[in-house]
Amino acid sequence: QVQLVESGGGQVQPGGSLRLSCIVSGITFSNTAMTWVRRAPGKGLEWISSINKSGDEVAYADSVKGRFTISFDDTKTTVYLQMNTMKPEDTAVYYCAADYADLLLLDPADFGLWGQGTQVTVAS
């Protein structure tokens, strides 16, 4: 059974940092592209970042470029999203998603496996 479980959310002050984790089980990372997306209150899904199966290609939305970093660990069971210099507009529920792919995937619609989400709030 495939499971994606996010953690690491919480409340942080503007300018602060958080690291989100997505523990993946039931699939083989070496065949899997991963992504982070978010949904802010009252808004639709926003793609944030993606990483390809080998980890040598990454992409970021302009809204987070230079502040967020996607990576996975050496065991390839956990995908991370390091978030620095956070802003109130980063407040959202953050989701990780996966799907089998050789290429870097940028469209959330291309991902069929999703976690339950973790809340991130940036406020003073």
Please write out the topology.
Blueprint: E1 3-7, E2 10-12, E3 18-25, E4 32-39, E5 45-51, E6 58-60, E7 68-72, E8 78-83, E9 92-100, E10 113-114, E11 118-122
Parallel strand pairs: 2-11
Antiparallel strand pairs: 1-3, 3-8, 4-5, 4-9, 5-6, 7-8, 9-10, 9-11
How would you concisely characterize the structure shown here?
It contains no helices and eleven strands. It is mostly beta strands.
Structure description:
This protein has no helices and eleven strands. Strands 2, 4, 5, 6, 9, 10 and 11 form a seven-stranded mixed beta sheet that branches. It has a four-stranded antiparallel beta sheet with strand order 1-3-8-7, with no helix packed on it. With 124 residues, the chain is mostly beta strands. 31% of the residues are buried. It has strands spanning 3-7, 10-12, 18-25, 32-39, 45-51, 58-60, 68-72, 78-83, 92-100, 113-114, 118-122. 0% of the residues lie in helices and 49% in strands.
From the spread of the alpha carbons, the general shape counts as globular
Tell me the number of helical segments per DSSP (H or I, 4 or more residues long). 0
Helical content stands at under 10%
β-strand percent reads: over 45%
H/E element sequence: EEEEEEEEEEE
Number of strands: 11
How far apart, in Å, are the first and last alpha carbons?
40 Å
Please tell me the overall pLDDT: 94
Structural class given helices, strands, pairing?
A: mainly beta
What radius of gyration results from the CA coordinates? 13 Å
Low-confidence stretches: none
Biggest pleated sheet: 7 strands, mixed
Subunit organisation of the chains: single chain
